Amino acid sequence: MMLVRADTTLCQGYSAFDVDDDGMVVLPGTTVSSEQHTRVEAAVRSCSGAALAMSEEPESAGLA
Q1: The whole model's pTM is what?
Q2: DSSP 3-state assignment of 53?
Q3: Which CATH number do you get for residue 43?
Q4: What does the DSSP 8-state code read for residue 57?
Q5: Does any domain span residue 45?
Q6: Looking at the 3D structure of the chain, how many domains does it have?
Q7: Residue 45's domain spans which residues?
Q8: Is residue 63 part of a domain?
């Protein structure tokens, strides 16, 4: 499973996602479905402020 993160300290408000009243990116969630993968990957690559990052979820995430 892939995850997406947004660093609001780097965000310049030029988002492929929604932005809030302050112009900061608002992610619809942190997990990336297979249907969203291409769109999210393109957004991460095109983020001029390098505020978006996508990574694989560690296999041990969520395990007790």
Answers
A1: 0.71
A2: strand
A3: 3.30.70.20
A4: P
A5: yes
A6: 1
A7: 2-56
A8: no
